[in-house]
Specification:
With 313 residues, this protein is α/β, with parallel strands linked by helices. The chain has eleven helices and 13 strands. The strands form two sheets. Strands 5-4-1-8-9-10-11-12-13 form a nine-stranded mixed β-sheet, sandwiched between helices. A four-stranded mixed β-sheet has the order 3-2-6-7.
Length: 313
């Protein structure tokens, strides 16, 4: 397995109805790599400032993440501050300080350039394209994006989409990118832009996988305690891509298992602030919740005679 993620490593300050945390580990590459590492080694490419706590990199390394691609530059680390209301599906950004991330120009170490599986975190689509220029022969490329890039750099994003196998977006992003109010029709249009498959993330309502095999719905597991939804999407992508890289498969069954595993990893990530729940998560717990997800959507066939004669013709 050779999997590389290029994205952000950040310090987050969070406030939800259930508490607050200041200057905790965050960023797309942090969540993604921690979740993908449950399946095998991961290489992370990002940038941090000289104020970034060494303990965070030591944690990632302890989980099997190769952090040699995380460059330390003079200056302050990327910071994000946000607040969630009782409806945890919506984040209110209070402050964003790009700092050294503003000058981030991904330069992949030699080992990363041979990676077979590549995940392009939510960064400028021009930078995503530059990453692909550096990878020699990727087998499977996943891409995440957001409404800001769809608005400000749609042309560049469309060019990058032509080069990837998989895209991860939420419902609002899918509609905006495709300029189509129907999520199903939006997904069809996005697949026509280049990707072979698309995941539409639906938060507490699960996820939809659109591919050549049709549409697959992964239900969200009912959770009694959600503390912090930050990083749920990147955790989903980490579980998804980590499983594909582990198995070396991208057929329909693999994509569907990966979708469920992505939902499982995301469900654990939101149970704690920052990466706290992921720090204690075990493989046995992942297997257990995967089994719960299967039970959640199993139902019996409709028995003969269930419909009246008036409907049979």
């Amino acid at each position: 397995m050779s999997l590389v993620v290029v994205g952000s490593v950040a310090l987050d300050s969070l406030e939800t109805p259930f508490g607050r945390r200041d200057e905790v580990l965050g960023g797309s590459a942090s969540y993604f790599s921690t979740c993908a590492a449950f399946f095998g080694p991961v290489r992370a490419v990002a940038v941090v400032g000289d104020d970034f706590p060494a303990a965070h990199l030591e944690f990632l390394a302890s989980r099997g993440v190769d952090v040699r691609g995380v460059a330390r530059r003079p200056g302050r680390t990327f910071r994000w501050k946000g607040r969630y209301e009782l409806d945890l599906n919506v984040a209110h950004t209070l402050d964003t300080q790009l700092n050294v991330f503003a000058e981030f120009r991904p330069d992949l170490p030699a080992a990363c350039r041979d990676s077979e599986y590549v995940f392009l975190g939510n960064i400028d689509p021009d930078l995503q394209g530059q990453v692909l220029d550096q990878v020699r022969a990727p087998r499977f490329v996943g891409l995440d994006t957001m409404n800001y890039w769809i608005t400000s750099k749609k042309g560049s994003l469309l060019r990058t989409l032509e080069r990837v196998d998989m895209a991860f977006v939420n419902e609002a992003e899918a509609r905006q990118l495709a300029e189509e109010p129907s999520v199903v029709r939006a997904a069809e249009r996005i697949l026509g832009m280049g990707p072979k498959a698309l995941v539409v993330k639906r938060g507490e309502y699960g996820a939809l996988l659109f591919s050549r095999g049709g549409v697959f719905a992964a239900a969200a597991l009912p959770l009694s305690g959600v503390l912090d939804p930050t990083g749920a999407g990147d955790s989903f992508a980490g579980g998804f891509m980590g499983y594909l890289a582990r198995t070396g498969r991208e057929d329909e069954d693999a994509l569907r298992r990966a979708t469920v595993l992505g939902s499982v990893l995301a469900s654990y990530a939101v149970e704690g602030f920052s990466l706290d729940r992921l720090r204690t998560l075990t493989a046995a717990e992942i297997r257990d919740r995967y089994a719960q997800a299967r039970q959640l959507v199993q139902f019996p066939d409709l028995e003969d005679g269930a419909l009246g004669d008036a409907t049979s013709s």
